[in-house]
Write a structure and sequence with these properties.
Layout lengths: L1 H40 L3 H28 L10 H32 L5
């Protein structure tokens, strides 16, 4: 039973570390796909909804990584080897990469705020 719990935690951490890049990729693609429609409709609202949803999902993944790091023990992995050190490294990586992609998603929203309509 403990092996299944450990495997699911490892899977959760793996998904959490991949969430930021995947959400950004989907957000970027959705913005591009909707650009023609939003130009014709003269509405930027879909872009804001996509950006807000992306930031929210990425922040949740970052919070999940933080929670797992706290649950494992708030220590840096150091040079030790083993399962606990690996999970700490992945959890810290999840916090960092998701924080980075929150900034990327916000930066991607800046042109939407600055430009009007079909520019």
């Amino acid at each position: 039973m403990a092996g299944k719990l450990d495997m699911s935690r490892g899977t959760i951490l793996g998904l959490a570390i991949a969430t930021g890049p995947l959400v950004w990729l989907l957000s970027f693609g959705a913005d591009f796909a909707l650009s023609g429609w939003t130009c014709g409709a003269h509405s930027r609202l879909p872009f804001f909804v996509i950006s807000a949803a992306g930031v929210l999902l990425t922040a949740l993944a970052m919070a999940l990584s933080w929670h797992e790091w706290v649950a494992i023990g708030k220590e840096w992995p150091g040079e030790s080897a083993g399962e606990v050190a690996r999970r700490r490294s992945v959890a810290i990586g999840g916090i960092g990469i998701n924080a980075l992609f929150i900034l990327v998603l916000i930066a991607q929203s800046i042109p939407i705020l600055m430009l009007r309509g079909c520019e």
